[in-house]
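Figure S4 source data
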Amino acid sequence: MVRGGPGVLRFACMDGDATVILKRTVDAGAPDAADAGTKPIEIPRQLGAVRLVRQIGQGGMGVVWLGRHELLNRDVAVKFLLNLVADENDPGFESLLEGARAAAALRHEGLNAVLNADVVDRVPFLVMEYVDGPTVAQVCQRFGKTSLAVARVLLAASCEAVAELHDQDVIHRDIKPSNILLTRDARPVLTDFGLACWRSAQALGTTVDGVAGTPAYMAPEMFERTVSPRSDVYALGVMAFELLIGTVPFDGSLAEMERAHREDALPEEAVAQLPPSLAQVIERAMHKNPMFRYKTARHLLRAFDDAFGELDQIEVSRARGQLELSTLISRTQLNGGDDDSADPRAGLGGTYYDRLGTLVSSRKRNPEESDPSGEDLIERVKEDRACLRCGGSIRGEPLTGRCPNCLLLIKLTIEPGSAPASAAGSSKGWAPPESRNAAADGTGRAAGIPADSASTPPVVTSTGKETWRAALRRLWNELLGK
Protein backbone atom coordinates (compact mmCIF):
# COMPACT_ATOMS: atom_id res chain seq x y z
CA MET A 1 0.00 0.00 0.00
CA VAL A 2 1.43 3.40 -1.01
CA ARG A 3 0.27 5.50 1.90
CA GLY A 4 3.29 5.75 4.21
CA GLY A 5 4.34 7.68 7.28
CA PRO A 6 1.39 9.21 9.13
CA GLY A 7 -1.11 7.86 6.61
CA VAL A 8 -0.45 4.18 7.19
CA LEU A 9 -3.39 2.23 8.58
CA ARG A 10 -2.57 0.04 11.56
CA PHE A 11 -4.67 -2.91 12.59
CA ALA A 12 -5.17 -4.55 15.96
CA CYS A 13 -6.99 -7.83 16.64
CA MET A 14 -8.70 -9.39 19.64
CA ASP A 15 -10.48 -12.71 19.51
CA GLY A 16 -13.21 -14.22 21.62
CA ASP A 17 -15.02 -17.54 21.67
CA ALA A 18 -17.73 -17.01 19.07
CA THR A 19 -16.57 -13.81 17.42
CA VAL A 20 -13.38 -12.08 16.33
CA ILE A 21 -12.82 -8.36 16.86
CA LEU A 22 -10.87 -6.61 14.10
CA LYS A 23 -9.97 -3.10 15.20
CA ARG A 24 -8.90 -0.60 12.58
CA THR A 25 -7.01 2.47 13.80
CA VAL A 26 -5.54 5.47 11.97
CA ASP A 27 -2.67 7.65 13.15
CA ALA A 28 -3.70 11.04 14.46
CA GLY A 29 -3.40 13.68 11.82
CA ALA A 30 -3.78 11.28 8.91
CA PRO A 31 -5.76 12.86 6.05
CA ASP A 32 -8.22 9.95 5.98
CA ALA A 33 -8.66 9.67 9.76
CA ALA A 34 -12.16 11.07 9.75
CA ASP A 35 -13.40 8.70 7.05
CA ALA A 36 -11.65 5.51 8.17
CA GLY A 37 -13.12 5.37 11.67
CA THR A 38 -11.81 3.49 14.65
CA LYS A 39 -14.90 1.50 15.62
CA PRO A 40 -14.03 -2.19 16.16
CA ILE A 41 -15.43 -4.62 13.65
CA GLU A 42 -16.95 -7.75 15.12
CA ILE A 43 -17.28 -10.75 12.83
CA PRO A 44 -18.23 -14.37 13.56
CA ARG A 45 -15.41 -16.86 14.07
CA GLN A 46 -17.30 -19.30 11.83
CA LEU A 47 -17.44 -18.04 8.24
CA GLY A 48 -19.47 -20.66 6.42
CA ALA A 49 -17.36 -23.82 6.33
CA VAL A 50 -14.25 -21.97 7.52
CA ARG A 51 -13.50 -21.56 11.24
CA LEU A 52 -10.95 -18.91 12.19
CA VAL A 53 -8.13 -20.25 14.39
CA ARG A 54 -5.55 -17.51 15.01
CA GLN A 55 -3.94 -14.47 13.40
CA ILE A 56 -0.78 -15.33 11.46
CA GLY A 57 0.05 -12.15 9.56
CA GLN A 58 -0.49 -8.42 9.22
CA GLY A 59 0.24 -6.00 6.41
CA GLY A 60 -0.63 -2.66 4.90
CA MET A 61 -3.94 -3.91 3.47
CA GLY A 62 -5.25 -5.99 6.36
CA VAL A 63 -4.69 -9.07 8.50
CA VAL A 64 -4.34 -12.76 7.67
CA TRP A 65 -5.82 -15.50 9.83
CA LEU A 66 -5.24 -19.23 9.83
CA GLY A 67 -8.55 -20.96 9.21
CA ARG A 68 -9.78 -24.52 9.13
CA HIS A 69 -12.04 -25.52 6.25
CA GLU A 70 -14.19 -28.09 8.04
CA LEU A 71 -15.80 -29.54 4.91
CA LEU A 72 -12.51 -30.02 3.05
CA ASN A 73 -10.61 -30.84 6.28
CA ARG A 74 -7.68 -28.60 5.39
CA ASP A 75 -6.00 -25.43 6.64
CA VAL A 76 -6.61 -22.21 4.70
CA ALA A 77 -5.41 -18.61 4.93
CA VAL A 78 -8.12 -15.95 5.32
CA LYS A 79 -7.11 -12.40 4.43
CA PHE A 80 -9.36 -9.56 5.60
CA LEU A 81 -9.03 -6.36 3.52
CA LEU A 82 -9.67 -3.88 6.33
CA ASN A 83 -8.85 -0.81 4.27
CA LEU A 84 -11.69 -1.57 1.84
CA VAL A 85 -15.44 -1.32 2.29
CA ALA A 86 -17.91 -3.46 0.38
CA ASP A 87 -19.63 -0.46 -1.10
CA GLU A 88 -20.14 0.70 -4.63
CA ASN A 89 -18.70 4.07 -3.59
CA ASP A 90 -15.35 2.48 -2.74
CA PRO A 91 -13.34 2.07 -6.00
CA GLY A 92 -10.90 -0.20 -4.18
CA PHE A 93 -13.59 -2.81 -3.65
CA GLU A 94 -14.15 -3.17 -7.39
CA SER A 95 -10.38 -3.56 -7.82
CA LEU A 96 -10.43 -6.30 -5.17
CA LEU A 97 -13.13 -8.17 -7.05
CA GLU A 98 -11.15 -7.87 -10.26
CA GLY A 99 -8.01 -9.18 -8.55
CA ALA A 100 -9.89 -12.05 -6.92
CA ARG A 101 -11.43 -13.07 -10.24
CA ALA A 102 -8.03 -12.89 -11.92
CA ALA A 103 -6.38 -15.07 -9.27
CA ALA A 104 -9.22 -17.58 -9.04
CA ALA A 105 -9.04 -18.19 -12.79
CA LEU A 106 -5.39 -19.32 -12.61
CA ARG A 107 -3.89 -22.65 -11.54
CA HIS A 108 -0.12 -22.93 -11.27
CA GLU A 109 2.20 -24.50 -8.70
CA GLY A 110 3.95 -21.17 -8.22
CA LEU A 111 0.74 -19.20 -7.56
CA ASN A 112 -1.16 -19.16 -4.28
CA ALA A 113 -4.62 -20.45 -5.19
CA VAL A 114 -7.63 -18.30 -4.24
CA LEU A 115 -10.37 -20.67 -3.09
CA ASN A 116 -13.12 -18.18 -2.25
CA ALA A 117 -13.93 -14.48 -1.92
CA ASP A 118 -16.75 -13.06 0.17
CA VAL A 119 -17.89 -10.18 2.39
CA VAL A 120 -18.78 -10.23 6.09
CA ASP A 121 -20.17 -7.10 7.76
CA ARG A 122 -18.94 -5.04 4.80
CA VAL A 123 -15.40 -6.37 5.22
CA PRO A 124 -14.14 -8.16 2.09
CA PHE A 125 -11.99 -11.24 2.59
CA LEU A 126 -10.17 -13.84 0.50
CA VAL A 127 -9.83 -17.54 1.35
CA MET A 128 -6.53 -18.83 -0.01
CA GLU A 129 -4.38 -21.93 0.03
CA TYR A 130 -2.35 -22.04 3.26
CA VAL A 131 1.43 -22.28 2.82
CA ASP A 132 3.20 -23.42 5.99
CA GLY A 133 6.51 -21.66 5.61
CA PRO A 134 8.33 -18.31 5.83
CA THR A 135 8.39 -15.61 3.20
CA VAL A 136 11.48 -14.76 1.17
CA ALA A 137 11.56 -11.45 3.06
CA GLN A 138 11.79 -13.27 6.42
CA VAL A 139 14.65 -15.43 5.18
CA CYS A 140 16.52 -12.37 3.85
CA GLN A 141 15.93 -10.40 7.06
CA ARG A 142 17.48 -13.22 9.05
CA PHE A 143 20.41 -14.21 6.82
CA GLY A 144 21.03 -11.18 4.59
CA LYS A 145 21.76 -11.44 0.89
CA THR A 146 21.47 -14.84 -0.77
CA SER A 147 24.08 -16.81 -2.66
CA LEU A 148 24.02 -16.86 -6.45
CA ALA A 149 22.62 -20.40 -6.42
CA VAL A 150 19.73 -19.51 -4.08
CA ALA A 151 18.99 -16.33 -6.04
CA ARG A 152 18.83 -18.39 -9.23
CA VAL A 153 16.23 -20.74 -7.73
CA LEU A 154 14.10 -17.90 -6.32
CA LEU A 155 14.25 -15.73 -9.44
CA ALA A 156 13.49 -18.63 -11.79
CA ALA A 157 10.42 -19.67 -9.77
CA SER A 158 9.20 -16.07 -9.33
CA CYS A 159 9.62 -15.20 -13.01
CA GLU A 160 7.87 -18.43 -13.99
CA ALA A 161 4.88 -17.64 -11.75
CA VAL A 162 4.60 -14.03 -12.97
CA ALA A 163 5.04 -15.24 -16.56
CA GLU A 164 1.96 -17.43 -16.06
CA LEU A 165 0.05 -14.31 -14.98
CA HIS A 166 1.27 -12.36 -18.00
CA ASP A 167 0.37 -15.23 -20.34
CA GLN A 168 -3.22 -14.84 -19.07
CA ASP A 169 -3.12 -11.03 -19.38
CA VAL A 170 -2.96 -10.48 -15.62
CA ILE A 171 -0.66 -7.93 -13.92
CA HIS A 172 0.23 -8.54 -10.27
CA ARG A 173 1.30 -4.96 -9.36
CA ASP A 174 2.78 -5.82 -5.94
CA ILE A 175 5.71 -8.21 -6.47
CA LYS A 176 8.15 -8.21 -3.53
CA PRO A 177 9.91 -10.78 -1.28
CA SER A 178 7.23 -10.54 1.42
CA ASN A 179 4.64 -11.71 -1.12
CA ILE A 180 6.57 -14.87 -1.98
CA LEU A 181 5.97 -17.76 0.42
CA LEU A 182 8.29 -20.75 0.74
CA THR A 183 6.92 -24.25 1.26
CA ARG A 184 8.66 -26.88 3.38
CA ASP A 185 10.12 -28.43 0.22
CA ALA A 186 11.59 -25.04 -0.80
CA ARG A 187 9.01 -24.22 -3.47
CA PRO A 188 8.39 -20.45 -3.89
CA VAL A 189 4.70 -19.46 -4.11
CA LEU A 190 3.58 -16.00 -5.24
CA THR A 191 0.63 -14.67 -3.24
CA ASP A 192 -1.37 -11.51 -2.47
CA PHE A 193 -3.50 -10.82 -5.53
CA GLY A 194 -5.36 -7.92 -3.92
CA LEU A 195 -3.95 -5.52 -6.52
CA ALA A 196 -3.95 -7.86 -9.53
CA CYS A 197 -5.81 -6.68 -12.61
CA TRP A 198 -6.60 -7.81 -16.14
CA ARG A 199 -4.51 -5.98 -18.74
CA SER A 200 -3.22 -6.89 -22.16
CA ALA A 201 0.41 -7.96 -22.24
CA GLN A 202 0.76 -6.15 -25.56
CA ALA A 203 0.01 -2.72 -24.08
CA LEU A 204 2.86 -0.48 -22.98
CA GLY A 205 0.66 0.96 -20.23
CA THR A 206 -2.94 1.54 -19.22
CA THR A 207 -4.41 3.80 -16.56
CA VAL A 208 -5.83 2.33 -13.34
CA ASP A 209 -7.88 3.84 -10.50
CA GLY A 210 -5.57 5.11 -7.79
CA VAL A 211 -1.89 4.64 -7.05
CA ALA A 212 -1.22 1.28 -5.40
CA GLY A 213 1.80 -0.88 -4.69
CA THR A 214 4.90 -0.90 -2.49
CA PRO A 215 7.04 2.19 -3.25
CA ALA A 216 10.43 0.44 -3.02
CA TYR A 217 9.41 -1.91 -5.87
CA MET A 218 7.25 0.39 -7.99
CA ALA A 219 8.18 1.29 -11.55
CA PRO A 220 8.28 5.04 -12.29
CA GLU A 221 5.09 4.96 -14.38
CA MET A 222 3.11 3.37 -11.53
CA PHE A 223 3.29 6.63 -9.59
CA GLU A 224 1.25 8.10 -12.46
CA ARG A 225 -1.34 5.28 -12.26
CA THR A 226 -0.02 3.55 -15.39
CA VAL A 227 0.66 -0.19 -15.27
CA SER A 228 1.70 -2.91 -17.70
CA PRO A 229 3.49 -6.29 -17.57
CA ARG A 230 6.72 -4.28 -17.77
CA SER A 231 5.83 -2.81 -14.37
CA ASP A 232 6.02 -6.34 -12.93
CA VAL A 233 9.33 -6.83 -14.76
CA TYR A 234 10.67 -3.73 -12.99
CA ALA A 235 9.63 -5.13 -9.59
CA LEU A 236 11.33 -8.45 -10.38
CA GLY A 237 14.49 -6.51 -11.23
CA VAL A 238 14.34 -4.73 -7.86
CA MET A 239 13.86 -8.08 -6.11
CA ALA A 240 16.85 -9.57 -7.95
CA PHE A 241 18.97 -6.61 -6.83
CA GLU A 242 17.82 -7.06 -3.23
CA LEU A 243 18.52 -10.82 -3.19
CA LEU A 244 22.06 -10.40 -4.52
CA ILE A 245 23.06 -7.17 -2.70
CA GLY A 246 21.02 -7.39 0.50
CA THR A 247 19.14 -4.08 0.23
CA VAL A 248 16.70 -2.44 -2.15
CA PRO A 249 18.33 0.03 -4.58
CA PHE A 250 16.28 3.04 -3.43
CA ASP A 251 15.03 3.88 0.05
CA GLY A 252 13.65 6.84 1.98
CA SER A 253 10.35 8.70 2.15
CA LEU A 254 7.64 8.22 -0.46
CA ALA A 255 8.67 11.40 -2.29
CA GLU A 256 12.36 10.43 -2.18
CA MET A 257 11.68 6.96 -3.57
CA GLU A 258 9.45 8.30 -6.31
CA ARG A 259 12.19 10.71 -7.41
CA ALA A 260 14.86 8.00 -7.22
CA HIS A 261 12.83 5.58 -9.35
CA ARG A 262 12.33 8.32 -11.93
CA GLU A 263 15.82 9.84 -12.03
CA ASP A 264 18.56 7.96 -10.15
CA ALA A 265 20.78 5.25 -11.61
CA LEU A 266 21.47 2.09 -9.67
CA PRO A 267 24.20 2.52 -7.02
CA GLU A 268 27.54 1.98 -8.78
CA GLU A 269 29.20 0.33 -5.77
CA ALA A 270 26.43 -2.26 -5.58
CA VAL A 271 26.37 -2.96 -9.32
CA ALA A 272 30.13 -3.52 -9.23
CA GLN A 273 29.56 -6.43 -6.82
CA LEU A 274 27.36 -8.25 -9.34
CA PRO A 275 28.58 -10.56 -12.09
CA PRO A 276 28.50 -8.49 -15.32
CA SER A 277 25.94 -10.76 -17.00
CA LEU A 278 23.48 -10.39 -14.10
CA ALA A 279 24.12 -6.66 -13.72
CA GLN A 280 23.19 -6.16 -17.37
CA VAL A 281 19.89 -8.05 -16.98
CA ILE A 282 18.92 -6.16 -13.82
CA GLU A 283 19.76 -2.77 -15.33
CA ARG A 284 17.58 -3.48 -18.37
CA ALA A 285 14.72 -4.84 -16.22
CA MET A 286 14.83 -1.60 -14.18
CA HIS A 287 15.14 0.81 -17.10
CA LYS A 288 13.31 4.09 -16.44
CA ASN A 289 11.55 3.86 -19.79
CA PRO A 290 9.25 0.77 -19.92
CA MET A 291 9.77 0.55 -23.68
CA PHE A 292 13.38 -0.60 -23.11
CA ARG A 293 12.57 -3.21 -20.47
CA TYR A 294 11.89 -6.87 -21.09
CA LYS A 295 8.42 -7.25 -22.54
CA THR A 296 7.09 -9.80 -20.03
CA ALA A 297 8.34 -11.95 -17.16
CA ARG A 298 8.77 -14.79 -19.67
CA HIS A 299 11.40 -12.76 -21.53
CA LEU A 300 13.07 -11.83 -18.24
CA LEU A 301 13.17 -15.51 -17.24
CA ARG A 302 15.08 -16.37 -20.42
CA ALA A 303 17.49 -13.49 -19.83
CA PHE A 304 18.25 -14.69 -16.29
CA ASP A 305 18.77 -18.25 -17.57
CA ASP A 306 21.31 -16.98 -20.11
CA ALA A 307 23.06 -14.78 -17.52
CA PHE A 308 23.41 -17.57 -14.97
CA GLY A 309 24.51 -19.88 -17.76
CA GLU A 310 27.65 -17.75 -18.23
CA LEU A 311 28.73 -18.31 -14.60
CA ASP A 312 30.50 -21.23 -12.93
CA GLN A 313 27.86 -23.96 -12.92
CA ILE A 314 29.22 -25.57 -9.76
CA GLU A 315 28.67 -22.29 -7.93
CA VAL A 316 25.20 -21.52 -9.35
CA SER A 317 23.76 -24.99 -9.91
CA ARG A 318 20.04 -25.38 -9.22
CA ALA A 319 20.67 -28.46 -7.08
CA ARG A 320 23.00 -26.51 -4.84
CA GLY A 321 20.56 -23.59 -4.65
CA GLN A 322 17.67 -25.90 -3.74
CA LEU A 323 19.75 -27.52 -0.99
CA GLU A 324 20.89 -24.17 0.44
CA LEU A 325 17.35 -22.76 0.31
CA SER A 326 15.96 -25.79 2.16
CA THR A 327 18.56 -25.25 4.88
CA LEU A 328 17.67 -21.54 5.19
CA ILE A 329 13.97 -22.36 5.46
CA SER A 330 14.60 -24.99 8.15
CA ARG A 331 16.81 -22.63 10.15
CA THR A 332 14.24 -19.83 9.87
CA GLN A 333 11.46 -22.08 11.16
CA LEU A 334 13.65 -23.64 13.84
CA ASN A 335 14.52 -20.24 15.31
CA GLY A 336 10.96 -18.99 15.41
CA GLY A 337 11.10 -16.41 12.62
CA ASP A 338 12.96 -13.24 13.56
CA ASP A 339 13.15 -13.83 17.32
CA ASP A 340 16.54 -15.14 18.33
CA SER A 341 15.33 -15.80 21.85
CA ALA A 342 12.48 -18.07 20.80
CA ASP A 343 12.50 -21.55 22.26
CA PRO A 344 13.87 -23.73 19.45
CA ARG A 345 12.02 -26.75 20.79
CA ALA A 346 8.70 -25.14 19.87
CA GLY A 347 7.72 -26.40 16.44
CA LEU A 348 10.99 -28.12 15.55
CA GLY A 349 11.36 -28.85 11.87
CA GLY A 350 14.03 -29.67 9.34
CA THR A 351 16.37 -32.63 9.35
CA TYR A 352 17.50 -34.63 12.36
CA TYR A 353 20.86 -32.86 12.37
CA ASP A 354 19.20 -29.43 12.17
CA ARG A 355 17.02 -30.23 15.20
CA LEU A 356 19.97 -31.67 17.12
CA GLY A 357 22.14 -28.64 16.35
CA THR A 358 19.39 -26.28 17.51
CA LEU A 359 18.99 -28.08 20.80
CA VAL A 360 22.77 -27.95 21.35
CA SER A 361 22.79 -24.19 20.67
CA SER A 362 19.93 -23.73 23.13
CA ARG A 363 21.79 -25.70 25.81
CA LYS A 364 24.96 -23.66 25.31
CA ARG A 365 23.00 -20.45 25.89
CA ASN A 366 22.08 -21.74 29.36
CA PRO A 367 25.23 -21.87 31.58
CA GLU A 368 23.57 -24.30 34.00
CA GLU A 369 22.98 -26.86 31.27
CA SER A 370 26.10 -26.35 29.19
CA ASP A 371 29.21 -28.46 29.54
CA PRO A 372 32.20 -26.07 29.27
CA SER A 373 34.57 -28.90 28.39
CA GLY A 374 32.14 -31.08 26.43
CA GLU A 375 32.19 -31.79 22.74
CA ASP A 376 29.45 -30.77 20.34
CA LEU A 377 26.89 -33.52 19.88
CA ILE A 378 27.54 -33.28 16.15
CA GLU A 379 31.07 -34.42 15.32
CA ARG A 380 32.82 -31.87 13.15
CA VAL A 381 36.15 -31.46 11.39
CA LYS A 382 38.39 -29.78 13.99
CA GLU A 383 41.63 -29.31 12.07
CA ASP A 384 42.30 -27.35 8.89
CA ARG A 385 41.38 -29.66 6.02
CA ALA A 386 40.98 -29.00 2.34
CA CYS A 387 38.35 -30.75 0.27
CA LEU A 388 39.88 -33.34 -2.03
CA ARG A 389 37.69 -32.23 -4.92
CA CYS A 390 37.68 -28.41 -4.83
CA GLY A 391 40.40 -27.59 -2.28
CA GLY A 392 38.07 -25.47 -0.15
CA SER A 393 38.27 -25.53 3.64
CA ILE A 394 35.97 -27.99 5.42
CA ARG A 395 36.95 -27.03 8.95
CA GLY A 396 33.91 -27.00 11.25
CA GLU A 397 31.75 -29.00 8.82
CA PRO A 398 29.84 -32.06 10.19
CA LEU A 399 31.63 -35.36 9.53
CA THR A 400 28.36 -36.67 8.09
CA GLY A 401 27.85 -33.64 5.84
CA ARG A 402 29.13 -32.41 2.51
CA CYS A 403 31.63 -29.82 1.35
CA PRO A 404 29.77 -26.47 1.20
CA ASN A 405 31.47 -25.63 -2.12
CA CYS A 406 31.31 -28.80 -4.25
CA LEU A 407 29.03 -31.05 -2.12
CA LEU A 408 31.60 -33.89 -1.90
CA LEU A 409 30.94 -36.10 1.13
CA ILE A 410 33.17 -34.96 4.03
CA LYS A 411 33.99 -38.54 4.96
CA LEU A 412 35.71 -39.05 1.60
CA THR A 413 38.18 -36.32 2.55
CA ILE A 414 38.80 -37.31 6.18
CA GLU A 415 39.13 -41.06 5.48
CA PRO A 416 41.95 -42.47 7.71
CA GLY A 417 45.29 -42.27 5.93
CA SER A 418 44.08 -39.75 3.38
CA ALA A 419 46.38 -37.04 2.09
CA PRO A 420 47.06 -34.07 4.42
CA ALA A 421 45.34 -30.75 3.83
CA SER A 422 48.28 -29.26 1.97
CA ALA A 423 48.41 -32.12 -0.47
CA ALA A 424 44.65 -32.28 -0.83
CA GLY A 425 44.46 -28.64 -1.72
CA SER A 426 46.59 -29.23 -4.79
CA SER A 427 44.76 -32.38 -5.80
CA LYS A 428 43.38 -32.28 -9.32
CA GLY A 429 40.54 -34.66 -8.54
CA TRP A 430 39.13 -37.21 -6.16
CA ALA A 431 40.76 -40.61 -5.75
CA PRO A 432 39.07 -43.77 -4.41
CA PRO A 433 39.65 -44.40 -0.68
CA GLU A 434 41.44 -47.67 -1.32
CA SER A 435 44.01 -45.97 -3.53
CA ARG A 436 44.57 -43.29 -0.86
CA ASN A 437 44.69 -45.62 2.14
CA ALA A 438 46.67 -48.53 0.79
CA ALA A 439 50.41 -48.33 1.59
CA ALA A 440 52.88 -49.87 -0.77
CA ASP A 441 54.76 -52.03 1.73
CA GLY A 442 55.91 -54.58 -0.84
CA THR A 443 53.27 -57.16 0.09
CA GLY A 444 50.26 -55.32 -1.25
CA ARG A 445 48.71 -55.09 2.22
CA ALA A 446 47.22 -51.90 3.59
CA ALA A 447 49.31 -50.17 6.21
CA GLY A 448 48.61 -51.33 9.76
CA ILE A 449 47.25 -54.82 8.85
CA PRO A 450 49.33 -57.68 10.36
CA ALA A 451 50.86 -60.07 7.86
CA ASP A 452 49.70 -63.13 9.80
CA SER A 453 46.11 -61.98 10.32
CA ALA A 454 43.88 -65.01 9.88
CA SER A 455 40.68 -62.97 9.88
CA THR A 456 41.64 -60.81 6.91
CA PRO A 457 42.16 -62.28 3.44
CA PRO A 458 45.63 -61.57 2.10
CA VAL A 459 45.93 -58.79 -0.44
CA VAL A 460 48.05 -59.98 -3.32
CA THR A 461 49.88 -58.18 -6.07
CA SER A 462 49.15 -58.80 -9.71
CA THR A 463 52.32 -60.80 -10.41
CA GLY A 464 50.59 -63.56 -12.36
CA LYS A 465 47.67 -65.98 -12.44
CA GLU A 466 49.47 -68.56 -10.24
CA THR A 467 49.70 -66.05 -7.39
CA TRP A 468 45.93 -65.49 -7.46
CA ARG A 469 45.21 -69.18 -7.57
CA ALA A 470 47.57 -69.87 -4.66
CA ALA A 471 45.98 -67.08 -2.64
CA LEU A 472 42.47 -68.39 -3.28
CA ARG A 473 43.54 -71.95 -2.43
CA ARG A 474 45.13 -70.79 0.85
CA LEU A 475 42.01 -68.81 1.76
CA TRP A 476 39.79 -71.83 1.02
CA ASN A 477 41.95 -74.09 3.20
CA GLU A 478 41.79 -71.56 6.06
CA LEU A 479 38.01 -71.45 5.85
CA LEU A 480 37.80 -75.24 5.99
CA GLY A 481 40.22 -75.36 8.91
CA LYS A 482 42.90 -77.29 7.03
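Figure S5 source data
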Amino acid sequence: MNRIEYAWFLLILFLMIGGYTGGCSNDESGVASKVKEEVKSLEKKASGAVKKLEEDYRVLEGKKDYEKALEEEPKAPPEAMEGGAEK
Protein backbone atom coordinates (compact mmCIF):
# COMPACT_ATOMS: atom_id res chain seq x y z
CA MET A 1 0.00 0.00 0.00
CA ASN A 2 1.52 3.29 -0.96
CA ARG A 3 1.50 6.43 1.18
CA ILE A 4 -1.44 8.11 -0.57
CA GLU A 5 -3.71 5.09 -0.12
CA TYR A 6 -2.59 4.82 3.50
CA ALA A 7 -3.38 8.52 4.09
CA TRP A 8 -6.84 8.15 2.49
CA PHE A 9 -7.54 5.09 4.60
CA LEU A 10 -6.61 6.92 7.81
CA LEU A 11 -8.62 9.99 6.77
CA ILE A 12 -11.73 7.90 6.07
CA LEU A 13 -11.24 5.95 9.29
CA PHE A 14 -10.96 9.14 11.39
CA LEU A 15 -13.98 10.68 9.69
CA MET A 16 -16.05 7.59 10.38
CA ILE A 17 -15.00 7.42 14.02
CA GLY A 18 -15.60 11.16 14.46
CA GLY A 19 -19.02 10.89 12.85
CA TYR A 20 -20.12 8.11 15.17
CA THR A 21 -18.88 9.79 18.32
CA GLY A 22 -19.92 13.33 17.41
CA GLY A 23 -23.42 12.51 16.19
CA CYS A 24 -24.51 10.59 19.27
CA SER A 25 -23.89 13.32 21.84
CA ASN A 26 -26.77 15.52 20.62
CA ASP A 27 -29.23 12.64 20.69
CA GLU A 28 -28.22 11.63 24.20
CA SER A 29 -29.16 15.00 25.68
CA GLY A 30 -32.62 14.80 24.09
CA VAL A 31 -33.11 11.25 25.30
CA ALA A 32 -31.83 12.13 28.76
CA SER A 33 -34.28 15.02 29.07
CA LYS A 34 -37.15 12.78 27.95
CA VAL A 35 -36.15 10.16 30.50
CA LYS A 36 -35.94 12.78 33.27
CA GLU A 37 -39.41 14.08 32.37
CA GLU A 38 -40.80 10.54 32.37
CA VAL A 39 -39.20 9.80 35.74
CA LYS A 40 -40.70 12.99 37.22
CA SER A 41 -44.09 12.05 35.80
CA LEU A 42 -43.90 8.56 37.29
CA GLU A 43 -42.77 9.94 40.65
CA LYS A 44 -45.73 12.32 40.66
CA LYS A 45 -48.15 9.50 39.83
CA ALA A 46 -46.61 7.26 42.49
CA SER A 47 -46.79 9.93 45.17
CA GLY A 48 -50.46 10.54 44.31
CA ALA A 49 -51.17 6.83 44.55
CA VAL A 50 -49.37 6.61 47.89
CA LYS A 51 -51.37 9.53 49.29
CA LYS A 52 -54.62 7.89 48.16
CA LEU A 53 -53.62 4.56 49.71
CA GLU A 54 -52.68 6.25 52.98
CA GLU A 55 -56.06 7.99 53.06
CA ASP A 56 -57.88 4.73 52.32
CA TYR A 57 -55.89 3.03 55.08
CA ARG A 58 -56.85 5.74 57.57
CA VAL A 59 -60.51 5.32 56.63
CA LEU A 60 -60.31 1.55 57.09
CA GLU A 61 -58.58 1.92 60.45
CA GLY A 62 -61.29 4.35 61.55
CA LYS A 63 -63.97 1.91 60.47
CA LYS A 64 -62.29 -0.92 62.40
CA ASP A 65 -62.03 1.26 65.51
CA TYR A 66 -65.70 2.22 65.19
CA GLU A 67 -66.81 -1.41 64.82
CA LYS A 68 -64.63 -2.43 67.77
CA ALA A 69 -66.14 0.33 69.92
CA LEU A 70 -69.64 -0.81 68.97
CA GLU A 71 -68.82 -4.38 69.97
CA GLU A 72 -67.33 -3.30 73.31
CA GLU A 73 -70.23 -0.99 74.12
CA PRO A 74 -72.46 -2.55 76.79
CA LYS A 75 -75.75 -3.62 75.35
CA ALA A 76 -78.93 -2.97 77.30
CA PRO A 77 -81.02 -6.02 78.12
CA PRO A 78 -84.35 -6.27 76.25
CA GLU A 79 -86.32 -5.61 79.48
CA ALA A 80 -84.64 -2.22 79.89
CA MET A 81 -85.50 -1.34 76.32
CA GLU A 82 -89.16 -2.27 76.87
CA GLY A 83 -89.32 -0.30 80.11
CA GLY A 84 -87.99 2.80 78.40
CA ALA A 85 -90.63 2.58 75.73
CA GLU A 86 -93.48 2.42 78.29
CA LYS A 87 -92.54 5.67 79.99
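The chain has one domain: 3-72. The CA atoms of residues 54 and 61 lie 10 Å apart.
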